[in-house]
Predict the structure.
Amino acid sequence: METDFLSRILRKKQEEVDAARKRVPEAVLRERAEGRKDRRPFLERLASPGPWGVNVIAEIKRASPSKGPLRPNLDPAALARSYQRGGAAALSVLTDGPHFRGSLDDLKAARSAVGLPVLRKDFMVSTYQIYEAGAWGADAVLLIVRALDDGFLRDALALCRDTGLDALVEVHAEDELDRAVEAGARLIGINNRDLKTFETNLETSLRLARRLGEGRIPVAESGIRDRSDVERLLKGGVRNFLVGETLVRASDPEACLRALVWGRRDDSAPSEPPR
Ligand SMILES: O=P(O)(O)OC[C@@H](O)[C@@H](O)c1c[nH]c2ccccc12
């Protein structure tokens, strides 16, 4: 039972991919993905703590399966600009339609509006989606360990390398973390959300981050509500944070982000630090 929700999504995703293949062949996407010259460094950005010691990957998410719609009339370009002004290190854009009401058009609109690197957040089950991500302008993709077997995880990571995409490899438990590391993942997303109960617990990030070896970069994902959550995770050595709902629901996402990144809402400090 435990992977029920996820396996339902994955089945649907496979159907979606099969249908998409009929419209646009994989070879066309591959050529487009491999021909890109506008890549923005995602992993590299997160590998250094940045000017404030906190990197936030700010997420654009219209709805979630557990909460329903999160922000009426969400405008991905406008929200991306607010995130950039608020000091985001990168963007994450949900492109899953059936459960999150997102699309590749959202990704394209958000990325065109800013200069930040962009993660395609979706349920990747096929090489097709990786080429598709590249073709639509993503700089990185999410790979969920629980959703993939070791063979595909390795293949997907190799394909990302060849295509010039970074990979955020998501785990929720020790065995998944070990599999991610074994497959060669560098950027490890630690999801605080339990997909069985939808509950979040920051302890998951703290616990799994301690297990990471040299050269692996942790990203705490989900359930980060305020600056005190950020500070708690910073004490555990985590400097990268993927934040969705808190920002998407905020009446002023820019100020909300600034408060997460450097503890104050006002803009008396420049949102772009001097370099
Ligand atoms: O909205 P939150 O609790 O800040 O979470 C953001 C992000 O971590 C979450 O959207 C997420 C993490 N892993 C995923 C996999 C698929 C879809 C969504 C997700």
About this structure: The CA atoms of residues 33 and 135 lie 4 Å apart.
